[in-house]
Write a structure and sequence with these properties.
Blueprint lengths: L1 E2 L9 H5 L8 H14 L2 E2 L8 H8 E5 L10 E4 L3 E3 L6 E5 L4 E4 L10 E9 L5 E9 L13 E9 L2 E10 L2 E6 L5 E2 L4 E7 L3 E6 L2 E7 L8 E5 L10 E10 L15
Parallel strand pairs: 1-2
Antiparallel strand pairs: 3-18, 4-7, 5-6, 6-18, 7-17, 8-14, 8-18, 9-10, 9-17, 10-11, 11-12, 11-13, 14-15, 15-16
């Protein structure tokens, strides 16, 4: 039996956690992490358990848009996204014309299962708005089109309401989840999420299921991201974004981080 090392360089814990059962109360998560470590041949004694928060952070990346200097990747700002503190502190306001962030990272690269969350406030105007885009870098072959492997958060605006549109695309899959009959008010803060548990792709608004579909998802490769627009500077977003959270493991709705103060 090995003793747990800080680097976890001899064990692929992620592959073990991918197989953890879906509906896990928060109190069960720590137990399942211990089981995963034990099954991988690690001994987590009481002192070693202090490494569990670090393990969790290896699985999860959080971007808070009032702390761009804390994002562990190069960030390029275009236009003039404006900080706003009412009522959600730390958000950036995007003008729907030219405001955007471009970040040299794809935080869900390599994930077999995932939870992709965000806290935002859509303000409307344009019908089609793409506001959070993860794009894998691809080696293109001459004469063949690129696959365009990506994750997307989008909205569709219908009068004073909006519907969530999520999308994933890769070599063996292409799936959108858009349900125009499930509408939400503009000008308010919402939590949104898209998840994959190994078989089913789902989307959520404020913890409520919007829809789902079976998908034969395969991990995406490293790449980059855009916030406030599509990666090719189309369909700009009008509204505010406070946070994006990327977890390389499936989370059930009761495990989402839905801390909205307004």
């Amino acid at each position: 039996m090995q003793t747990a090392k800080n680097e976890f360089d001899e064990v692929n814990i992620l592959s073990e956690i991918d197989n953890i059962s879906a509906a896990r109360p928060a109190a069960v998560v720590r137990r399942d992490l211990l089981k995963a470590a034990s099954g991988a041949g690690l001994v987590l004694s009481t002192p070693a358990c202090t490494t569990l928060p670090r393990l969790a952070s290896d699985l999860q990346t959080v971007w808070r848009f009032d702390q761009l200097d804390q994002i562990r990747a190069s960030v390029t700002v275009e236009g003039s996204p404006t900080p706003t503190n009412a009522p959600v502190a730390g958000a950036l306001q995007f003008d729907g014309v030219e405001d955007a962030l471009f970040i040299a990272d794809h935080p869900l690269a390599g994930a077999r299962t995932f939870a992709f969350e965000a806290i935002f406030r859509p303000d409307g105007r344009r019908f089609e708005q793409r506001w959070l885009h993860l794009q894998s870098d691809e080696v293109t072959v001459e004469g063949q089109p690129s696959i365009g492997t990506r994750f997307l958060f989008e909205i569709r605006v219908y009068g004073n309401e909006w519907a969530l549109d999520t999308f994933i695309k890769g070599p063996s899959y292409s799936q959108a989840l858009l349900f125009p009959d499930k509408l939400h008010p503009l000008g308010r803060w919402h939590h949104v999420a898209q998840t994959y548990d190994g078989t089913t792709y789902r989307s959520f608004v404020d913890g409520a299921l919007q829809g789902e579909a079976p998908v034969a998802f395969t991990p995406q490769g490293p790449g980059r991201a855009s916030v406030g627009t599509r990666i090719n500077r189309r369909d700009y977003f009008e509204g505010a974004i406070a946070e994006a959270r990327f977890t390389k493991a499936f989370l059930a709705p009761d495990q989402f981080n839905r801390k909205i103060t307004g």
